[in-house]
Design goal:
three-stranded antiparallel sheet; mainly alpha; globular; 9 helices
């Protein structure tokens, strides 16, 4: 959890602010919540179940989901309902700055936060967007998650032993 976050006055008056306002008060409130909630981090990519949104905003689950869809429709944020992740693409630029010096200690912080989301659908988008500005290393090659339907390449030792015992019992 961060100690502070920045919210620029342009949040209310800029192009995105006007699109959020057109989505209604719930849309604006949710966008502000996405910037300042306890789960948020400086890179704008974090885990946030819709149930938590509903809890903090005093909304129903249906109301929170509807507001989240409206916020996403403006392009302010993106949501992965399967992994329960939120990505606010411009958040890093506003919270950290447009660029960082190679020696800036925040580079390590950004890399650390981003590495927590190697399997995220938004990992590569963040990496492409901020690679040069934040001196990010090449993306991790292990980003893709193995399908739960794929079997391991070879059975575990205990499975091999069980299979051998079963074969021996069948032969007797």
């Amino acid at each position: 959890m961060r100690d502070y976050s920045k919210v620029a006055p342009a949040f209310w008056t800029g192009d995105t602010g006007r699109r959020l306002r057109a989505g209604g008060p719930d849309c604006q409130l949710l966008a502000l919540f996405l910037l300042t909630n306890p789960s948020a981090n400086m890179i704008g990519l974090y885990h946030l179940p819709v149930e938590m949104i509903a809890l903090y905003l005093g909304s129903t689950l249906e109301g929170a989901s509807k507001a989240l869809r409206r916020v996403c429709a403006t392009g302010f944020a993106f949501h992965d309902p399967i992994r329960e992740e939120v990505y606010v693409p411009q958040m890093a630029a506003h919270q950290i700055g447009a660029t960082l010096s190679l020696l800036d200690k925040r580079v390590k912080g950004v890399v650390r936060e981003l590495n927590n989301f190697r399997k995220s659908a938004f990992y590569m988008d963040f990496h492409e967007r901020y690679r040069e500005a934040y001196h990010l290393p090449e993306p991790c090659c292990c980003r893709q998650e193995a399908s739960p339907l794929e079997a391991p390449s070879k059975p575990l030792r205990s499975q091999e032993q069980e299979q051998e015992q079963e074969q021996e019992q069948e032969e007797c």
